[in-house]
Amino acid sequence: MHRRVLLRLTVIFIALVLFAPLRGKSNAGEMQGLPLAVDPRSLRAYMIELEAPPAIIHYSDRLQQEGVSAAAAMAATQAHMAALDQVQRSLLPIVEASGAQTLYRLQRVYNGVALLATAEQAVQFERLPGVRAVHPIVGKQPALTSSVPFLGAPALWQGFESSVPARGEGVRIAVIDTGVDYLHVDFGGPGGDYARNDPTVVGDVPGFPGAKVVGGYDFAGDAYNADPRASSYNPIPAPDPDPMDCYGHGTHVAGIAAGFGVTQGGQTYTGPWDSSTDFAGLRIGPGVAPQAQ
Hints:
By secondary structure, the protein is of the alpha+beta class. It is 29% helix and 10% strand. The chain is built from seven helices and six strands, in the order H-E-H-H-E-E-H-E-H-H-H-E-E. The strands form two sheets. Strands 2-3-1-4 form a four-stranded antiparallel beta sheet. The protein has a two-stranded antiparallel sheet with strand order 5-6.
């Protein structure tokens, strides 16, 4: 059973890496405006799910057939993706003639067309040939309180198939990103001192280096901006020794990797990190390796 799951995951990885892009470009930029009969405020995001299986399922099924090589399965799947693309393209004139707006199209892990439409249009699209269903696209928010248990991390903390827990003890993780907010309580910081902190100087406020964030460096500088279209365009790096995050993404990544967790009272979660961890009772869940640095 475990081998079959591993094979499935391996197939997904290979398919995502090797298959050449076939997704048609979004027509969002081509729409000159919606018909007057359609109120833009009534539009919602929907996904049209088509009947044919996506590329990854097709590839996996072919690969498990006796005598079929990986190269043959890939060639067949690329042809399958081209067929999916053709079917999707045939729907676009019908969809957009109704006043709906195409957002993007998928063929690899899902066979569908995302669009903005009214609820009435969504019902009509369900009747189109080759359509399995039309689903509302519901916004999602990342939350470690659900994602880390979903990954099975608590089983490793407990010592999965071993008497030795794996919580990141003795491990240092390097995150190359926008920096890290070492003052955040998720990393054992004080949760304050932001106004006094000079993000180019180390040692002006306590918190770095600390028990969690033990090192770091800013290779670009907070004023660096490589986007030539931005009014703050500044392609010249100005490094400094303070890795304080100037954007937020690096902090989120570091929290996923090794955050302690944050209680509902806004304090650093101090454990336990095992199968008894009360994720529902935490404001921010611990990272996958909460005792790593």
